[in-house]
Design goal:
about 250 residues, 8 helices
Length: about 250
Amino acid sequence: MPQQHNIKSTTSGAGYFFQGLKLASQPGTRRFVLIPLLINIVLLGSAFATLLDHLGGWINHWLSYLPSWLDWLSYILWPLLAIAALVSFSYFFSTIANWIAAPFNGLLAEYLEAQLTGQAPPDDSFNALIKDLPRTMGREWAKLKYYLPKAIGLLILMWIPAIGQTIAPVLWFLFNAWMMTIQYVDYPFDNHKVPFPEMRDALKQKRGQALSFGAVVMLLTMVPIINLFVMPIAVCGATAMWVDHYRTQFKRY
């Protein structure tokens, strides 16, 4: 009989990420963490090596579109655009990593939920993984369709001189923090086949918690070396959030 893990719950989204760090490193969970971790290391490691080589040149080229009388703004916009670029790279490549690792992240969330609730562990066979693959990929596609129109609108805003280049990086960060929460909390929601719109609406009811969780994930995904370990920790933290705040609400699934 599996033992229920007595880990103190929290209402803080940021707290759930750090709770995920403890959960990811406990015996039994580590074998489910390994594959998502390796995928994240390969993709994010390569992406950030490229970014650090080209970031300065890209930002200077972008700022060249400012009118000469607004040159003084470059001192303010340079760090804002650097953050926007880091956020963009972090979200883009973590999304690719999550597409590849989605079946394994779903399995990690399912196993961890069983441990947290004292239930029998799920079937972790390769056949079970393949069987769920179409549904898992369909869910990733739903997230992408939700993300793209809003992301395109913010990117267009970013090209508006002065005002857009000042406001858009802040909005870009907040939106991607929201999307990070959707990305990771969706694994336990999807395991229970909760429809995507219902999952999104449930998160809106606890928007502050969702944004604080996503903001921590987003910030740490922007930090070289640390970002290599974020994915499985975020899955574990999101699963703990699901168990504490959403599982009872969606018992019908």
